[in-house]
Design a protein that fits this description.
Largest sheet: 10 strands, mixed
Order of helices and strands: EHEHEHEHEHHEEEHEHE
CATH superfamily of one domain: Gcn5-related N-acetyltransferase (GNAT)
InterPro entries: Acyl_CoA_acyltransferase, GNAT_dom
Number of helices: 8
CATH class of one domain: Alpha Beta
Pfam families: Acetyltransf_1 (PF00583)
CATH topology of one domain: Aminopeptidase
Protein name: Acetyltransferase (GNAT) family protein
Keywords: Transferase
Structural class: alpha+beta
Strand order of the largest sheet: 1-2-3-10-4-9-8-7-6-5
GO molecular function: acyltransferase activity, transferring groups other than amino-acyl groups
């Protein structure tokens, strides 16, 4: 289990936030609660495997709310090494390349549009401001671009009107490549931009010797899951994300009617 104070969430939402990942037992949960209390946390965000039902029940007993269910997919590179094309036609109306420093504003704008009213665990929490939830993903994107390098890769899609999509990738030490954050602007939806970015990532992983590629999304986000399965990805596991608030005087924020699934 890993638990820590999230400076990014505290800066964005104005509440002291503890994040915990990989809870395995009631004892892990008790440690998270103790850590949160010792740090005077307002909010605990806990993520755990969906099979840990006893921990789930205890979280619910403590007043935690389920804010999302993630599904993880994995692709074994050896299985597709000889089936992924290495070249694509010049007829595509966009091109893919690695991000450059001058792209930061444009990529941030794409993230802001793509994640407007996105339904992630932040947006599912009625205590959090909707605009701040949007900006949480934008900040995540900005941070990744600033840290782009050997361990963090960012791919952008560009057409005649500018950058229209992005995909961030994280390199793990065990020869695994994680596809982390992605988005496309609405004007190119349905034109295959996201599919080509995933293909690019698979080609990159095979070319550079990765053994596996993995990624995740909310179970309600069916569109991207169809793209992944078409590329040979298979589902591996589910994880729940719970939010536990510690202070009763924090009031829910009114929820807008417009929500974006995927």
């Amino acid at each position: 289990m890993n638990r820590y104070l999230s400076e990014l969430d505290q800066h964005r939402f104005g509440v002291i936030t503890v994040k915990a990942e990989g809870l395995e037992s009631i004892e892990d949960l008790e440690e998270c609660i103790s850590f949160s209390n010792n740090n005077k946390a307002d909010l605990l965000i806990a993520r755990l495997d969906a099979s840990k039902i006893n921990v789930v029940h205890q979280l619910e007993t403590l007043g935690s709310i389920l804010c999302d269910t993630l599904i993880y997919y994995e692709l074994r590179c050896l299985r597709v090494k000889n089936s992924i094309p290495t070249a694509h036609t010049d007829e595509e109306p966009f091109r893919l390349r690695e991000v450059m420093a001058r792209d930061q504003v444009a990529v941030t704008d794409v993230a802001r549009e793509a994640f407007s009213e996105y339904v992630g665990h932040y947006h599912s929490d009625p205590m959090l401001n909707r605009h701040d939830c949007d900006e949480a993903y934008v900040s995540w994107c900005e941070k990744t671009i600033k840290n782009a390098g050997e361990s963090n890769k960012v791919i952008v899609a560009e057409d005649g009107n500018g950058i229209c999509g992005f995909l961030t990738m994280k390199i793990h030490n065990d020869k695994r490549l994680e596809l982390v954050l992605s988005g496309v602007v609405k004007r190119v939806e349905g034109r295959g931009v996201y599919r080509r970015m995933i293909q690019y990532a698979v080609e990159y992983a095979i070319r550079t010797g990765f053994k596996r590629i993995f990624t995740s999304t909310q179970i309600i986000n069916l569109a991207v899951q169809r793209v992944w399965t078409a590329q040979g990805f298979l589902p591996q596991k589910f994880e729940y994300t719970f939010h536990k608030w510690f202070k009763a005087n924090i009031k829910p924020v009114p929820i807008a009617n417009k929500l974006h699934f995927g």
